[in-house]
Amino acid sequence: MDKADLAWVSVSTLLVLLMVVPGLALFYGGLVRAKNVLSVLMQVVSTFSLALVIWFIYGYSLAFTEGNAVVGGLSRLMFSGMFDLSTKTFELSGTIPELSFAAFQATFAGITCALIVGGFAERAKYSAVMIFTAIWLTFSYIPIAHMVWAPGGWLFERGALDFAGGTVVHINAGVAGLVGAYFVGKRVGYGRESMQPHNLPMAMIGASLLWVGWFGFNAGSALSANETAALAFFNTMVATAGAILAWLMVEWKYKGKPSLLGAISGAVAGLVGITPAAGLVGPGGALIIGIVTGAACVWGVNGLKRMLRADDSLDVFGIHGLGGIVGALLTGIFNAQALGGPGLATLGDIPHQLWVQFEGVLITIVWSGVVALVAYFVADKICGFRVSTEVEREGLDINSHGETAYHY
Amino acid sequence: MKLITAIIKPFKLDEVREALSEIGIQGMTVTEVKGFGRQKGHTELYRGAEYTVDFLPKLRLEMAVSDHMVEQAIENLCTAAHTGKIGDGKIFVTPVEQAIRIRTGEYGESAL
Question: In this predicted complex, what is the ipTM?
């Protein structure tokens, strides 16, 4: 066991926790209307917690143990066999205790589930969201994590590159969020009433915590305090900065003014884009990935969003979905040594890699989409997915949670 | 005695207050309100969704003044609150039946 590796992965796990609470929670919270801020904070923290518990019980086992090409086995149910407290022996995963690896991965499962709530924010029933999360985590997140990251997994064996979860986390969540937006329908008043963020400073605090925490998400995925971690670390800086500037430039040109909302959206887009690439491209590639993803996601939340005609309240697909797709594909290109990356030996290797990346993207979109649809359907049948119009008008905070965020 | 009620743009408050104290208006009450007028309903686009902007933040000023000061007050108010753009606001004048200063118990014009 390597103590430095253990320390780094442990810190990274904390950083990913920071990304969810308070990061994502506040980012999403600031973007919704005041009457719904608590519901968003609740859904983020609750889905995350549910995911962690499920992960402990059977999630880790089915995702990361040996099984078949799609899913693992049950050898690590309740983390059994990982450690023997009476003899103080801990199984290792690489150079760190398997327990620590499982903990790190737990936060990934958790954040993926928490991301999805953005797609149906301000109109989903809390109980339905929890039911949906349990089903989707089990039938979409776990298999896709296994296929991409576990030896024996179909995409893993094909050589798909996903360093920290561009596909497993972001495309996966993005598609589920979009399907949710279609399933639950548009918010009452969408297209007529203003649904602007109620607290942009809060959203910015959240986005900033996301940026800081993402260093754990990306560089921690090296699973070691080594050169790859150092590379992923810097890439996470430069890609994000590039993405922020790119988003602002595009926004400035096409909408007249660069906005703070644009800057923080650009940051998240860049972070999503570099996620699959973090330890697999050089800094130059990372910068390009950040710029391209940042610019592409401006389209994702405007033109594409209008084309898709779904009320994806918090742009889960426009940023996480599209950003993940762009990042996954660009990873296949900039991994090449000729383009500064640590991977593909010649430029001629790129087309095949690009194809494998595309396979991963396609499989994830279809799998996540279908599972999400079924999960929404089941949750809807059990308790109804959408709240009533009155509840929606009055606000979820007071109706679903008996609380008001602000007392004027 | 008359009650002057003025709906103005929030950022105009300081200017209006100065212009009114120039002619000796000693007090006023200010409330934060929302509203729209004839030219309401332009649309804006936010993240792919259009929405109508109608309720905009305004300030409502209320001041009780003696009859002889009303005309000058209105003139000063208009000049100070004017921008020439949509949403400058409106002024209403209503009669005041009685006015009392609570601290001293004075009635009528001496309460203003």
Answer: 0.71
